[in-house]
Structures are given as structure tokens and as C-alpha cells.
Design brief:
single chain, 97 residues, alpha+beta, 2 helices
Length: 97
Amino acid sequence: MIMSRLVLLGFVLALTSCHSIENFPTASDVKMGANVPDEKCKEISKVTGRSSSKKSDEEATLNDLKKEASLKGANYVQIMQKSSLGTEVTGIAFRCP
């Protein structure tokens, strides 16, 4: 019984030691623009940034967009649409080399 637990523990340790951890960018690492990124970039998903304020706060909205993109591993967002009030912005998140 003890031997089987040791073997299992060794197997688990071997598997976890081979696993690499991907470093995700921070929100401050995310670049934004209206242009389509380089063809080497990989599209990740659609992202949306929102302002929690009732009044227009474009900076907070863009920061929220960058935060969502970074949590998905993106480092570039192609801006697709901004709301007329500036409380919501949507884009496509990309991971670029």
C-alpha cells in the first residue's frame, strides 16, 4: 500500500515538473488599435470593456477591455466598436509574438 502511494506520488511529481506555465501579459502590456495586426498574430476571442460609471469614462472602459484581453492571454486588441456614450467598447483579442 505504501509502495503504491509512493509510485503514484512520483508519477504526479514527474507530470507536474514537465508542465510549463505560460506567462500571460498584464493589462499594461496590451496594445490597442483599429488596424488588423500582423498575420503572425493568433486571434483569441472577442472582448468587451465596460465602464461601471453612469457617465462617459472612456479611459476606464479601455482599461477594462485591456484587463479582459490580458486575462485571456492577449497582448493586442483590434478595436471594433465604441458605444456612443463611451461606456462600452468591443474588440478582437490577439496574441502576437
